[in-house]
Design brief:
The chain has 15 helices and 11 strands. By secondary structure, it is of the alpha/beta class. The strands form 3 sheets. The chain has a 6-stranded parallel beta sheet, with helices on both faces. A 3-stranded antiparallel beta sheet has the order 7-8-9, covered by helices on one side. It has a two-stranded antiparallel ribbon with strand order 10-11.
Length: about 400
Amino acid sequence: MLHQLCHSAGGLMATTGNGPLAGVRVVELAGIGPGPFAAMLLADLGADVVRVDRPGGHGLAIDPAYDLTNRNKRSVLIDLKAEDGPRRVLDLVERADILVEGYRPGVAERLGVGPEECLARNPRLVYGRMTGWGQDGPLAPRAGHDIAYIAVTGTLGMIGKADEGPTVPANLVGDYAGGSLYLVVGVLAALQHARAHGEGQVVDAAIVDGAAHLATMIHGMLAAGGWQDRRAANLLDGGCPFYGTYETSDGQYMAVGALEQQFYDEFVRLLGIEAVAPARKDFARWDELRTAVAERFRTRTRAEWTAVFEDSDACVAPVLSMREAPAHPHLAARGTFAEHGGITQPAPAPRFSRTPGSLRRPPALPGADTAEVARDWDVPALYHHTTEENDR
């Protein structure tokens, strides 16, 4: 009966794409930030991600129709604080390969959907936990956001100008690089183990761990004496005059990354300062070199300098805004951005030659896919319960 209802309600829809994770089932307990982004990445690569939304929403001040981190997913509405809420989630968990949650430590356990309950129902489950501070340690129970996590790891302190406070890199370094991407690596590695050995496990992905791990190379340079523990004093942090940004005559910027000698030689030649530029390894004259580069860049517009450098190996590029980026010729040719549902957005990444990811569905609206999920995951009680609630 349920199968017939779902067909008559709008036809059978594809639930996953042909990405490399096609056939993998993921339960995402709704949250904000790095957890949803990690689940989106799994969905982009073909996983069937079911987001368990709570009545009343999750507190993010954005229209759900524009929350791109929920693209390629489906949503069901379950109140985990209701008497039968945990049981309904566990019914989904029994049929899942991966669970993703981003609560504070102990919250999932109090709600009845912690690792013990979930692994008892499904011993092969990979239980992915996304937090800022991690599951243990003095700060584990405390609230926090991206900026605090990258602050204590030393990551934030290395970004910015020497005579100013650290520059906040949006929430990209902590939430998404140190958090989401490490969670995805972790759950996929654990999934490989589960499929090989038949046993699931808990993956503790903490942003502090990931953000610290991102700086592994720099810690090695620091130990070797090749990195100074202060901002804008090093090769890759803006301290180097041929690795940084420069203002153009129209108030825009160009990015320069001419590190190797052959690229640097081409850079100074095309910039037009070859005759006056001091040797790039003459550290005592770096300020002089920076001034020469800055003065030269201020003589032309960003578009003019882009034309000068675009067919070269000088490692120079225009600094574009988010709205400008999709129209860049290289990104347009590669399809780095795509339009789906009337929204221009980054396309799935990385790319696969045989099993490409795809944009299949717009952002999931809370509870909109309950009937589909109930049918496809064979959890009819999920649909009947929601129908009963709507009839009240």
